[in-house]
């Protein structure tokens, strides 16, 4: 295993642990949403590191799907949290 892959994997694991702590502690819905977004980004980054290390593209569809689900979920929750009134500039 190359040293760069080990370093990146440790950083991603630490990021995932810290995001799970934020997910558990909250305190608000938006904090938890941000933690879930970070976890999805870490999962995507981990899959990309695996693809780069193994020199294959088997997980590319999964990475795109996870990123799209994360984006659509974030937009949906953000629209749900707002009160629906247009902002005055």
What report would you give on this structure?
The chain has helices spanning 3-25, 29-54, 60-81. It is mainly α and 89 residues long. It has one domain (3-81): Orthogonal Bundle (Helix Hairpins), CATH 1.10.287. Helix content is 80%, strand content 0%.
CATH topology: Helix Hairpins
Number of strands: 0
- Helices, by number, come to 3
Unreliable spans are: none
Q: In terms of structural class, how would the helical and strand content be classed? A: mainly alpha
Q: Sheet bearing the most strands, described?
A: none
Q: Rg, please?
A: 16 Å
Shape: elongated
Helix-strand topology string: HHH
**Total domain count:** 1
Tell me, rounded to a whole number, the average pLDDT.
91
How much strand content do the residues show?
under 5%
CATH top level is Mainly Alpha
Kindly, what is the distance between the CA atoms of the first and last residues, rounded to a whole number of angstroms?
Answer: 54 Å
Helix content: over 70%
């Amino acid at each position: 295993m190359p040293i760069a892959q080990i370093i990146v994997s440790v950083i991603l694991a630490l990021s995932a642990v810290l995001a799970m702590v934020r997910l558990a502690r909250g305190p608000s819905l938006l904090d938890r949403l941000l933690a879930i977004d970070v976890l999805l980004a870490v999962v995507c980054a981990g899959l990309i590191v695996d693809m780069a290390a193994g020199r294959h593209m088997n997980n590319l569809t999964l990475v795109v799907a996870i990123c799209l689900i994360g984006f659509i979920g974030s937009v949906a929750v953000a629209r749900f949290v707002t009160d629906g009134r247009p902002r005055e500039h």
